[in-house]
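Here is one chain, start to finish.
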Amino acid sequence: MQRIAVIGGTGMTGQCVVDYALEKGLKVRLLYRTEPTIPERFRGKVQLVQGDATKLEDVKNLIEGDGAVDGVCVILGTRNKLEATTELSRGTENVITAMKEAKITKFSVVMSSFLLRPLNEVPAVFHKLNEEHQRMLDLTKASGLDYIAILPPHIADEPGTSYTVVHDEAPGRLVSKDDLGKFIVDSLDQPEHYGRVCGIAKSAKSN
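Its structure:
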């Protein structure tokens, strides 16, 4: 893994993904919507591609432009909006289409640990967003690619410590934004997580 594309890299978790990838020595190509959302520290270090994940041509330009990438990190969010949307699933579908055309197979994609719970345990205010995350997960599972579906619990704005990853269940109720960012990048090179739904949380010994 030498070069990655990041979609959603200007949000809280996405910035951690970019920071960690750069620290690891990876080249990063970042899709952004508007100039003001780009952190100053990324300028000159990250290849910036303006566009919108809901537009297939923009995603193709990110993934294929100026040499194809080796993997893709998808951290699409709604900026705390909870109403019904299809933006996240449309973005995911575009990523899958563009990856297949470019013959790239590895991508990590972030949703929510609410998908690991029965619907009656999910607060009603999150139901619409949960439905959209389910559409994302269904598309991801049907992609035929080496996906890592990452379903974090509450993402804490705190430094990383250590974390636990398990398949098909939620190991805890909280994860640091730094630890999550780290796993989003590292999992691209961890075949044991390919084609799996990954729950992640702060390690019990770190609590």
